[in-house]
Specification:
single chain, 203 residues, mainly alpha, 10 helices, elongated, HTH-type transcriptional regulator TtgW, HTH_TetR, HTH-type_TetR-like_transc_reg, Homeodomain-like_sf
Amino acid sequence: MAHKPRSEMIAETRARLVAAARKAFGTVGYADASMDDFTAEAGLTRGALYHHFGGKKGLLEAVIAEIDAEMSERLREITAGAETPWRGFVEECIGYVRMALDPEIQRIMLRDGPAVLGDPTTWPNQSACIASLSTNLRGLRDAGTIVDLDPDAMAHLINGASLNASLWIANAPDPEETSRRAVDAFRTLLEGLLADNAKANGC
């Protein structure tokens, strides 16, 4: 039987560790997740974990990157199903905030992530989020759908608002009610960007 290429074996090892850690982090949280338990579940050793991720913190970063990629794909699907670019933009922004109700996202991305990795605005994924928002805003501005604005500046403001809304929801005593309030307020905030002609046309 032919041996697997080394690159494939490395990818499989990393995937097994990430899957086991994601299950543990999502179930009991980062602090209570035992490296011995999830390496054993993956059929690997602590040595493999340290080799591939440098430790538990590095593994959390990998889990967050995986979840973030899945969130981005879910948002792309929301945008693709929208009737207009403006509706797609709004529903994508709202969709991100609503994801804070997902138990796994709450625990890993919005509670343990900031506690272990620090301010989420400094995470690697934030630059891509802001760039995407800026591109969408520029297109909407150039089409006359929204008021004349600085897309880069507004992208930073919207990104900050959505991130803080998500953190608020994830740490609230009643996440469902907090999500409803945050979504209502965020939708009002976004609607304020519409140009007068777009408002008249019911965009």
